Structures are given as structure tokens and as C-alpha cells.
Amino acid sequence: LYLYQNRFTGMIPPSINDLQQLVGFDVESNQFTGSLPDVDNMANVAVFFASDNSLIGTVPTTFHTLPKLQ
After folding, report:
1. Residue 8 to residues 13, 32, 63, 66, Cα–Cα distance (Å)
2. Which residues of 53-62 are buried (b: 16+ CB within 10 A; e: fewer)?
3. Integer Cα distance of 34 and 9 in angstroms
4. 12-29 burial string, b = 16+ CB within 10 Å, else e?
5. What is the mean pLDDT of the chain?
6. Structure confidence at residue 15 (pLDDT)
7. pLDDT tens profile 26-48
8. What torsion do the CA atoms of 36, 42, 44, 50 make, to the nearest 10 degrees?
9. Quick check: 18 and 41 in contact, CB under 8 A?
10. How far apart are CA 14 and CA 34, in angstroms?
11. Of 13, 70, 25, 23, nearest to 43 (Cα)?
């Protein structure tokens, strides 16, 4: 799911965690706010890009458990 540079606003919805077959998630260079949601069900995701937004907080510990994340 590549949504790079689309001027999206609001929070990244926690429901992205339901996308269990997702391999790539790129929301770089938008205007997302809030914190990153947990991603413990996204075991197949290899890339996750969320830089250049207005996100706050720390990276959830669930990111460290993703076996394919590069």
C-alpha cells in the first residue's frame, strides 16, 4: 500500500493492523498526526515508511517483532 506524497491528514488508522497480508506500507511525506499504531498482526510487512509526517511518540514495540521488516 503506497500512499507517498498525497497530502493525507489525520491519524494512521489502527485498522491497518488488520491487513495481515500487506507487504509494504508507505505513507511518507503526508500530513499524518498522532502516533504510530500497533502492527503486531502485520507479520508479512517488509517495508514500513512513515517519515516526513507530524507523528509523535515512540515506535511501538510491536515493530520489533515483525519477522520480515527490513
Report:
1. 12, 6, 23, 26
2. bebeeeeeee
3. 10
4. beeebbeeeebeebbbeb
5. 96
6. 96
7. 999 999 999 999 999 999 999 99
8. -10
9. yes
10. 11
11. 23
Residue 30: Cβ within 10 Å count: 20
Q: Provide the grid cell at 29.
A: 511525506
Residues 69, 48: contact at Cβ < 8 Å? Answer: yes
The owner of cell 502492527 is 39
> SS3 letters for the chain?
CECCCCCCEEECCHHHHHCCCCCEEECCCCEEEECCCCCCCCCCCCEEECCCCEECCCCCHHHHHCCCCC
